[in-house]
Amino acid sequence: MSKTIGIFGGGQLGRMMAQAALPLNIQCTFYEANRSCPAAALGKVFSSADPELIPFTQSADVFSLEFENTPLADVELLMEHKTIYPPAEALAIAQNRLLEKNLFRVLDIPVAPFLPVDSVDNLRVAVDNLGLPVVLKTATGGYDGKGQFIIRHAEQIEEAWAQLGPAKSLIAESFVNFSREVSIIAVRGQDGDIKIWPLAENHHHEGILSHSIVPAPQSDDLQPVAEEYIARLLTHLDYVGVLTLELFVTADGLYANEMAPRVHNSGHWSIEGAVCSQFENHIRAVAGLPLGSTDLIQPTVMVNVIGQHPDVAAVLALDGAHLHLYDKSEREGRKLGHITLMPKNPAMLTTLCQQLAEILPEPLALTKETQIHI
Amino acid sequence: MSKTIGIFGGGQLGRMMAQAALPLNIQCTFYEANRSCPAAALGKVFSSADPELIPFTQSADVFSLEFENTPLADVELLMEHKTIYPPAEALAIAQNRLLEKNLFRVLDIPVAPFLPVDSVDNLRVAVDNLGLPVVLKTATGGYDGKGQFIIRHAEQIEEAWAQLGPAKSLIAESFVNFSREVSIIAVRGQDGDIKIWPLAENHHHEGILSHSIVPAPQSDDLQPVAEEYIARLLTHLDYVGVLTLELFVTADGLYANEMAPRVHNSGHWSIEGAVCSQFENHIRAVAGLPLGSTDLIQPTVMVNVIGQHPDVAAVLALDGAHLHLYDKSEREGRKLGHITLMPKNPAMLTTLCQQLAEILPEPLALTKETQIHI
C-alpha cells in the first residue's frame, strides 16, 4: 500500500514534503550530507558525505529534490534505473542563469537585457552595451544574494571581476528598476494538469526573504500574466511537480528574475492558507496522483524565523499564528522556521506583523511600522 | 530547544498528535503493544507488551494519552516522578460509566435516569424503575457499541444478564429517545484558558462512527448549552488538554452520553476545518503553551475510511478532499483513515458525500442519497 519517494536534500523543504506525504501513506527517504538534518525525523537519511548514492537510489520507487544545486551527475546516475521529477533538463537550466535567461527569452517571458561574460574585457563591453548600473552574477551557484555584484560606476568593473571572475562563467544584467518582487508558484501533474497559487509579494533584507504577503497586494492584473508565463515554462519543460518563478514588478510590467525547480520559501503560507499546499501538491504530482485545489482560503502573511528562535509562547499567543520550526540550531542568517499569520479578520494582519516585529529576535524587513494592505 | 511528550498509546490519534507537535519542535514517544503502530513513523515506540514502562517514563518531560483505557496503575507509577495531562482523576472517571454519570449528575449536566446493577435481581428492579426499553452496559470497557445490550422486553432480562453479567459492575440506563448525536470538543490550558470547537453531528453505522458534519446543522441554540456543560467538566476536573463530550439531542434538550478524556474521531475535521486543530491544541496544552483559536474556517464533513482502503486517486480528485491514512492494514470494521471534505462552496458537500459513497468500499452511513444541510 505505502509508496516511497526519495528526495535529494533533507532540509526544511524535505521535512515539510515528508510531513505532507505521511497522511497519504507515502514515506520519504533523503540524500543529505548531515544525518541529523531537519528531515531526519520523518524518514531514513542516506549520507551524501559517505557517499551512499547507490543505496539511496534503491530506497524508493520515484525521486524528487528539494535542492536545486543537486549534482546533475547524481541525477543522471539515478535516471539509469529510476524516474525523477522534476525532469533533469529543468534542473540543468535552473542551475545556470545563462540557460535560464535564454529559456525565458525563447518563451517570450520578459527579462532584463543580459550578456554572457567570461573576461574582464567583455565585462567592459557588456557594461557599455547594457548601461550602468549592471548586475554581475555567477552563472552557476549563489543564493540569498551571494555570488553577485552591483556595478554602479565604471571604476567598479575591475573590483567586480576580481570578486566574481574566478567563477569563469558570469552573466551581466541590466539593473531592473522594480517596485517590488513577487513570485508565482505552480504545480503540474503527470497528466499535464496545471494548478497555480496566487502571487506572493516578497520582502527581503540583505538578500534573505523576510516575509511574503499573499495575495500580493494590487495583483489582479499581474496574476493572469504571471500564470501565463509559468504555464509556458511548465509545458515547455514537460515538468512534473512544483515550479517557482520570481518576478520583478516594473513600470513596464513583469520581468522574470529566476526560477526554482522546487517548492519555495515564498509558498510556505500555502500549508494553512491554500486548500492544498505546495508540499502536498508536489508529492501528489511526483506520486502520479490528482492535484488539489490551489485556491486561497484567506489572505495571509508568512514571516521567516532567522538566526535565533523566538519566544514560542509569545508567537503562539498571536491570533491565527501558525509556527513551523525546522529543528535547526541557531546561526546568524539561518532559516530556523516560519510563522504563518492567518487571522479570521485580514485587517488584523498589520497589527499582527507589528507584534511579531517585537517578538522576533531578527525581524529582518518587519518593523513596528509595517503596514499590510490586502 | 526541543521538548518531548510521552503518549500512552500509538494509534492514529498518537500519530496525528505527533504530526501536530513536529512543527513546534516537540517530539513524541509512545507506549504501545505493537512496535509497528501508526505512530511509529513519528517517534520511538516503547513496547507495553515487553513491558518497557520504566524506560518510557524516562523518555519524556511530560506525558499524555490517546487511549482512555490506559491502565490507571501505569499512570500512577508514572506520576511518582512525572506529570501527565489530562489528570488521572479524569481518566478514572472516564473509565467507569457509573462514576461518569454520577459526575454529570453532580454538575447538573442532564443524563438519562440510570441505576447500578450487580445481580440479575437488581437488574429486574432497575427495569421496573426505569421502564423499558433499558440499555444495559458494562461500567468499564466496551467501545464502538460493544459491551451493551438493549432490553426491549422483560423476557430479555435473563439473556442480557447472561451476556454482560460476568463483568460484575453494570449500569442500566433509560433508553434516550434522541433525534441525533452530537459531540462537543474543548481544550483547557495549564493557565485555565478554555477554547471550544463547534458541535459536530455524528452519524454511526453498527456502532462505528461513519461521518461527522461540522457545524452540526441547526445547532445555534445547542452550542452555548453544550459549551456550558463541557466547561463545567473541564473546570471541575482541573483538566489540561482536549476533552470530548458526546451528547444526545432530544425533545427535552441535550443529554450527556459519555465523555472521552482525549482527542476524538469526531474532531478530525479540525485539522483543516479549524484555525487550530484538536491535535495541535492538545499538544499546546500539554506543553504549557497558549491555546490556538478553535474558530471554524468553513463547514466540513469528515468521513471515516473503514475496513478497506479506497482508490486514493479517486478520493483526491474530489474538490477540497483531504485524505489522512493511518498506515494500517485492512481488517473488517477497522479505522484505516479519514477524509475531510472542505469544498470552497459548502453547498457542494452533499454532492461530494454522494460521490464518496460511490468511491468508499465501506461507506457505512453514507449513501448516494445523503443530504448535507448546513
From TrEMBL, chains A, B:
GO cellular component terms, semicolon-separated: cytosol
Q: GO molecular function: any one?
A: ATP binding
The ATP-grasp domain sits at: 101-287
What InterPro entries would the database entry show?
A: ATP-grasp, ATP-grasp_carboxylate-amine, ATP_grasp_subdomain_1, PreATP-grasp_dom_sf, PurK, PurK_C, PurT/PurK_preATP-grasp, Rudment_hybrid_motif
Q: What is its EC number?
A: 6.3.4.18
Question: What is an example of a Pfam family matching this protein?
Answer: PurK_C
A GO BP annotation: 'de novo' IMP biosynthetic process
- What metabolic or biological pathway is this protein involved in? Purine metabolism; IMP biosynthesis via de novo pathway; 5-amino-1-(5-phospho-D-ribosyl)imidazole-4-carboxylate from 5-amino-1-(5-phospho-D-ribosyl)imidazole (N5-CAIR route): step 1/2
Subunit structure as annotated in this protein's UniProt entry: Homodimer.
- Its biological function? Catalyzes the ATP-dependent conversion of 5-aminoimidazole ribonucleotide (AIR) and HCO(3)(-) to N5-carboxyaminoimidazole ribonucleotide (N5-CAIR). Catalyzes the ATP-dependent conversion of 5-aminoimidazole ribonucleotide (AIR) and HCO(3)- to N5-carboxyaminoimidazole ribonucleotide (N5-CAIR).
> Which HAMAP family does the record cross-reference, listed alphabetically?
PurK (MF_01928)
Name of the protein in its database record: N5-carboxyaminoimidazole ribonucleotide synthase
